[in-house]
Amino acid sequence: MAVRGARVLFGASVAGAYALVLAPVLAVVVISVFRQEIVSFPPEGFTLRWYANAWDKREFARGFITSLQVALVATAIGVPFGTAAAYALARARLPAKGALNTLLLGPLAVPGVVAGTALYLFYVRAEFWVDDDIKGTTLGLVAAHVLLTIPWTVRLVSAALAGLDRSAEEAAANLGARPFTVFRRVTLPMLRPGVVAACLFSFIQSFENLELTLLLVGPGRITLPVAMLNYLEFRVDPTLAAVATVQIVLVGALMLITDRFVSLSRVV
Amino acid sequence: MGTLQLQGLTRRYGANTVVDGVDLDVAEGELVALLGPSGCGKTTTLRMVAGFVEPSAGTVRIAGKDVTHAPPHGRDTGMVFQSYALFPHMTVAGNVAFGLEMRGVGKAEREARVLEALRLVRLDGLAERLPRQLSGGQQQRVALARALVVNPAVFLLDEPLSNLDAKLRAEVRVEIRNLQQRLGLTTLFVTHDQEEALTMADRLVVMEGGRVRQVGTAEELYERPADLFVANFIGRVNALAGEVAAPGAFRTTDGTTLPCPRDAAPGRATLCLRPEKLRFQPWASAGVPAKLERTVYLGGQTEYHFTLAGMAVMALRETPPEGDRLRSLRPGDQVTLDWLGEDARLLPEAAR
Predict the structure, then answer these.
(1) What global pTM score does this model have?
(2) Complex-level ipTM
(3) What is the β-pairing status of strands B288-297 and B334-338?
(4) Using one digit for the tens of pLDDT, what is the confidence trace for B232-263?
(5) Which CATH superfamily is domain B236-348 in?
(6) What H or E segment, with its residue span, contains residue B125?
(7) 8 Å CB contact of B85 and A178
(8) pLDDT tops 80 at residue B224
(9) Which of A175, A192, A196, A266 to mutate to test the interface with B (most CBs of B within 10 A)?
(10) Which of B50, B52, B83 has the CB atom closest to A165's CB atom?
């Protein structure tokens, strides 16, 4: 009886946890098709006009494109650097490895608003040195987002490296491969699940970032989350829920596709 | 193919000396086994030959060339790893072709040689499989083919059989030995399994605590062990402490006199006797009285455990036929032990 009771309790806890995590997501999706402008229960009816409205508001489309560009470029830069850093941490003879590791994971621990403010102030100072615009430019934004991608990459690739059978690398060296060839032909392919996961998480981190981005975007270069926040200042209607639903579907699809190539549960 | 020479090879980690002055010459086409308990330094020695561990002192010569400080990719060795270390993302053919690719062998020749190597290990037909689709034994053979296909000067095997089940191990043992002899491969083989070493190697190197205890053929090590450690490690042995009192007479610590070789030097020693050299009669006669403690029936052979002058000794002999009076021996029975003095071997005391 006690065992059965424990099992029921366990099942209930799991169900509760899932409900807690998924309820807001589900709520957003449901609200996006409510007919009335001010969200209230029960719904007066259902409609897809908020999706049409989101489509009509060009700032969302533009924001989406900007977010996509920034996220892709930040991932393309951050993942190679993060992978190299993780490899060095795992393999090279470095002094103060622990401190270096903490430093690389640091951006995760700093609140986005704080990091954004710090970067803003830094950019102001840097503009004075280089005598050119940095804050409000795409370059400045991408640089800030690279900062978001590195800790995730270092963490995921480090985990993959820790689980790697080093004798395969030794075998490659034994067969005549030079160190870089060993890395390219053996280590990197074996790290693929970790690197793919790092790309995915980096992309999502960058794509949905609001706090850090808020302080660094310039006119005409608004990312989607910032565009959504701007919209919220004037209107509170289900259009935002519609945009958010599209985002949820996109990220979900991305995860499913990734999972087909590498089993995510194995690396995360 | 080439020779392998180790001179004073030493590896220290801080104050800890893992390999201590190993000297060894492996002739062309010879298979030498490094044998010893775990932690004896055998694997570190092999890894110094392959170039994965930097020696603290000493030299490694492959085919006469000093490669002590050469990187792994600059040495002409082919290694088979304990875990096989196959490249999981490459096919069997891709794995085997890797070494040839690194040596700049052209595509056509590469394919031909890969096929030949796979045929050698009876894996032709599985060329396009991935390692994870193969059984342990097949993976092991891919690892062999991958190391062999490049014709290395020295072939290195690191406990290659320890991940196989007992039956397969005996098969692969023969297979590796046949290949090695057919191709005349100069081979260094690391194992902790004495049976494996005895059945495969031309010569054995018994290591303990980072040092070489003895080098020799299986016969030499079994019949003329240099010390008690080797005697214990290669086969089983009865070791009795005492001293040589007179020519052919060995006196144990409690005063019992036992036969020993006539030419033994007087003084304290350990008398070693292989179990199959020990004879016994189930009645009182010339010899040493002892008490049977237990018998262990092993099928074709039977172990008889006795107490002799307070010390445990063991005899191994063919199981007597049914009806033989030895079959009716029971624990507690008195017997007489006896052996030829020349069959015993005296080893320096405190060899361990």
Answers:
(1) 0.80
(2) 0.83
(3) antiparallel
(4) 888 889 988 888 888 888 888 888 888 888 88
(5) Nucleic acid-binding proteins (2.40.50.140)
(6) none
(7) no
(8) yes
(9) A175
(10) B83
